[in-house]
Amino acid sequence: MTTSLSQATSTTADVIPNHVRSARRGLILFFVFLIPLSTVGYWLTFINGKWIVLLMWTPALASLITRLLLHEGFADISLRLGGRRTLKSIPVVFLLPIAVGLTAYGIAWITGLAHFVAPKTYLIAHPIAIFILFLLANTTLGTIYGLLGSIGEEVGWRGYMLTRLIDAQVPRPVLLSGIIWGVWHLPLMLVGLYYASPILFLSIVLFMISVTSFGYVIAYLRLTTGSIWPAVFLHSAWNAIIQNVFDLFTQGDSVLLWTGESGVFVALTLLAVAFIFSRRQCAMLRTLPKQGEPLV
């Protein structure tokens, strides 16, 4: 099926097909388990931030329990790599976070709304050299380390919820999946454990724009490659590059207003990126075809 992400949904029939009923039943059960599991995950994280990895795995746990109870199987998680389609996604996975960072944070640095400041390290080198070193380390080792958490989220969000929203014929499934993903993060902002400026309401709005927009890009990789791995790696690379590099090298009195995932420039940059990806015509792969079958 060739369509755009902004139109990624199924047609509605007079009689609801069995696969649509099944998908809707799966979504209901998924959220029935996700809410209490996430509540426990947040409670533990509020006590000790080290529990954040467990919290990130609650979407996967909810989806796996649902699959088992409904006898859905695990094949459509799409753990296969996807061949050349996945290889073509590598530039997006690693260059997009860097491009967004240089654009959004670069504007803040150039305008003086935030300042480029190298953190204190044992290295004696020019700040730009230290920045490049941190960038290389987090693009590689940081991304690999971050897979521990990103796999948990993506198996649940894009490996189950997104595809079920599409199968259930929910209007604008990609947009809705991004909104749900963003709302799921909000408790961390409300208790002050996530990036937020003193204007909390504005931070929440900007964060929702950023996450929902980023959701379009991750969904694009998931649906065009037929594999969950590009989404997993992009999620991990984003966290490593933006949070461990660009945020680390940015300081200022209003830094959280302009930069970070709840910052003005990041939100606007991701919104522009989402618009580009959402308009692209592409072949949507619900799952990878079996050996010998055509991709489209």
UniProtKB/TrEMBL annotation:
<feature type="transmembrane region" description="Helical">
    <location>
        <begin position="51"/>
        <end position="70"/>
    </location>
</feature>
<dbReference type="GO" id="GO:0006508">
    <property type="term" value="P:proteolysis"/>
</dbReference>
<dbReference type="InterPro" id="IPR003675">
    <property type="entry name" value="Rce1/LyrA-like_dom"/>
</dbReference>
<keyword id="KW-0472">Membrane</keyword>
<keyword id="KW-1133">Transmembrane helix</keyword>
<dbReference type="Pfam" id="PF02517">
    <property type="entry name" value="Rce1-like"/>
</dbReference>
<feature type="transmembrane region" description="Helical">
    <location>
        <begin position="91"/>
        <end position="118"/>
    </location>
</feature>
<keyword id="KW-0378">Hydrolase</keyword>
<keyword id="KW-0645">Protease</keyword>
<feature type="transmembrane region" description="Helical">
    <location>
        <begin position="255"/>
        <end position="277"/>
    </location>
</feature>
<feature type="domain" description="CAAX prenyl protease 2/Lysostaphin resistance protein A-like">
    <location>
        <begin position="141"/>
        <end position="241"/>
    </location>
</feature>
<protein>
    <submittedName>
        <fullName>CAAX amino terminal protease family protein</fullName>
    </submittedName>
</protein>
<feature type="transmembrane region" description="Helical">
    <location>
        <begin position="228"/>
        <end position="249"/>
    </location>
</feature>
<feature type="transmembrane region" description="Helical">
    <location>
        <begin position="124"/>
        <end position="148"/>
    </location>
</feature>
<feature type="transmembrane region" description="Helical">
    <location>
        <begin position="174"/>
        <end position="195"/>
    </location>
</feature>
<keyword id="KW-0812">Transmembrane</keyword>
<feature type="transmembrane region" description="Helical">
    <location>
        <begin position="201"/>
        <end position="221"/>
    </location>
</feature>
<dbReference type="GO" id="GO:0080120">
    <property type="term" value="P:CAAX-box protein maturation"/>
</dbReference>
<feature type="transmembrane region" description="Helical">
    <location>
        <begin position="27"/>
        <end position="45"/>
    </location>
</feature>
<dbReference type="InterPro" id="IPR042150">
    <property type="entry name" value="MmRce1-like"/>
</dbReference>
<dbReference type="GO" id="GO:0004175">
    <property type="term" value="F:endopeptidase activity"/>
</dbReference>
